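Subject: for your reference before the review

Hello V.,

The reviewers asked for a structural picture of the protein, and I figured it would be easier to keep everything in one thread rather than splitting it across files. Below is the amino acid sequence we used in the manuscript, unchanged from the supplementary table.
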Amino acid sequence: MMKKLLILLLWIAPIWASATHIVGGEFRLIHKQGYQFELRLVQYFDEVNGDPEAEDDFATVYIFRKSDNVNVRILNVNQLSSSFVPYTNPSCTDESILFRQIIYSADLTLAPADFNDPEGYYAVFERCCRNNIVSNLVSPESTGQTFYMEFPPVVINNQPFVNSSPELSAPISDYACINKNFMYDFGASDPDGDSLVYSLSTPLNSSRFEPVPTPSSAPHRPVTFRQGINENNMVPGVPPLRIDNEGKLRVIPSTLGVFVFGIKVEEYRNGQKIGEVRRDYQLLVVDCNPGEAPEIFVRHEGAFVNDEELLSLSKDGDRCIEILVTDQDPDELIRVSAEGINFDNDISSLISPSLQLMDGPNDTLRFELCLPQCPYTEGPMQIRLIAFDDACSQPLSDTIAFRVEIVGADDSDPFIVNNPNVVEVALDEGEAFTYPIRGLDEDGDLLSLEAIGDGFSISDYGMRLEERLLVPGEVQKVFRWTPECENIDFSKGNKFEVEVILSDNSDCPFGETDILLFRFTVNPPVNERPRLTIQGLDEREVSIRIDETLAFDVLAEDFDDDFIVLNAVGDGFELNDYNMYFPGNQGIKSVESPFSWRLSCNVIDLAEKSKFVITFLARDNSACGVPSMDSLKVTVNVLPPLNEAPELFVRNFESGDTIVAMVNRPVSFDVISNDVDNDIITLRLSRVVFNGTQLDTEVVNFNFFPARGRGTVGSRFNWLPGCETVGQTNRDSFVELFFVAEDSKCFNIKNDTVSIILQITDEALNLEAYQPRNAITPNGDQQGDFFFLRFCNNPEGECDLPFGNCANIFQRIDIFNRWGKKVFTSSDVNFEWHAEGISPGVYYYTIYYNNDNYKGQVYVYLRDPN
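And here is what came back from the structure prediction:
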């Protein structure tokens, strides 16, 4: 056999020299707990010819919603493990043909809010490139793979939907010999017990010719097969590659080469498809000779047994069958396996030894298969024997199947005499029930008759089976039950099912049991329900305002003198959350409890809830555990509190009064608010209108601070109006001030407003009211040596002339002699004229204002200072 393998390697080595790395792969989704999952990506890597740089440390997987192909999750899966893909026959392994299985993994949460679409989801990863030696693809070196898997939502009809994807059988590295049978087992197991449907599938290409393309949404383009190749003959042969309903791939290949193929496993639950997984893989077909398959024979009592022949063995006789194996090839290792076809018992251990070395082509191996006295199934057992050799790359085999019956192991079914199968029984509490039962068995076996309650022990409920007769082949018992309150909790239901099961005790117990089913309906004793009444409340629906109190008493009475429990629940709210007080009560026959509620803004938001329905409940506890109940509802409509608006006024003024204010003279007044409800008041300046135009109160330089307090608040208004309020027009300006006081009563806020008008006027420039100085003596005696004028706006003060008003402001002074010649000028209001170098006499001056002039004269006296 090693010579056969050497021929294979010499054939494939030149082909694989330039191969790239992708052999195939698949996805798997594993449910862990709740909405926690593990996502696995499996990639099969060509270890010999693949580029080591092409091995990824992680992969980026995209998850899309099937209904609209929208990307809903991007997930990085990290390399978890790497291991070599084994051969079926380890002795066929060669380091020149090695595939590695690389597993990438990540945990993820599939939250119900994100993964609830009924059409489900699919995961995608794309990678380039496939082996360039692939024979059935056009340009395989530029052909990538799209890894693809579908899975269902995690909730369906608002209920959790738990699912893991199918797990495909582990791949093998086996190669196929041309014109010889070859089999791959790609069967899958499903942890949820879902039905699986297998089919061949055209492999999917990647979306772009890039090393790692960004995964795209469906549909995905298939690979391009060479002419004459399609999904039905991805591995050409007679017949070509096929897959059965167990996931086994079979082919007798007719063409040498490396062939890529794909399989699809669809997952069904209750007849509906819920997901699918795909695996891409490749098969190498070489010119090799695995030799001849072994042949297996079965012989009993000197005669050979044919396929499907029926053998009759005695239960108390010899139950051993002789197995013979021959092989035309020398030096073969032979292994024989035994398996049941119509039963699940493991019978492989019944063959010993299981492995034997053949000494030559004319040698024959002999085994024995010895069966137990009792068969594994009722009726003939179907048994399959398979002989394997050690050929490369897969063992060759031969199979024989036959049937075996064990004579004397039959067992007749026991039966209940006149069994009606189901007995419907209606009983009142305390009423006795009796039912005799007789069981027979034609084989005369010892019988067992037992009663089993559905979810309960019959002894706990007072039921019993009384034995009357027990002999081989017959049993008689009486079923008795008197349902009583002390044994039954009627609050859990009043229907009970009991199975009476008859079985036999034979050596080979294949007889079916016989079952009698009792369906009991027990009527509990009559229980008068308690009665609820309310004292201190005339209507069941009331309206009450915040800051008021609702109070009444609730009375519960029971006319059976049962124990009563009185409590209350809110419709959609907890009583404690709103400070409702109802302690409840419990006792015998009659109990009472007060209800009170002081409604407060602190816990009630009328914008959110203004109607409160309170249900008062009275429940009794009768002896049989069947409670009766009475309920009574009180509806409370909550209204806003009563409220008086605060009073706002300006001290010494009425709302709308006009206050005359002079430019550059301060104006002030007090704004005060009172609230008779003693609520918290907020006082503020709400609006300012200047000569008909509203101003922003934040930028006006009034000195007025908002005030806040309970019952009474006040704040002073201060302002020094400047010339900017009247400009140079000398016209009055009007400033209208609006003040508001607002109380804090919840859901019924009220306010009051006052307004004051400020009339801002510019003081008139009355030059005639002033008598300026009119003489100087510039002789150096420090008294009256120069001429000056004191300017101010108070004629009664020490002023020579007014400085001016907003329209008329001092500009300059000019001084002339008597011939009209200007001898002095100044624009400084603090000027000084020292009259230097001039003659004594009268001089004339003019004071210039913006819009007016003042003319006067000054006498210059030159006296001797001595």
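For the response letter, the relevant points are probably these. Residues 315 and 373 are 5 Å apart (CA to CA). The radius of gyration is 55 Å.

Happy to draft the paragraph if you're swamped.

O.
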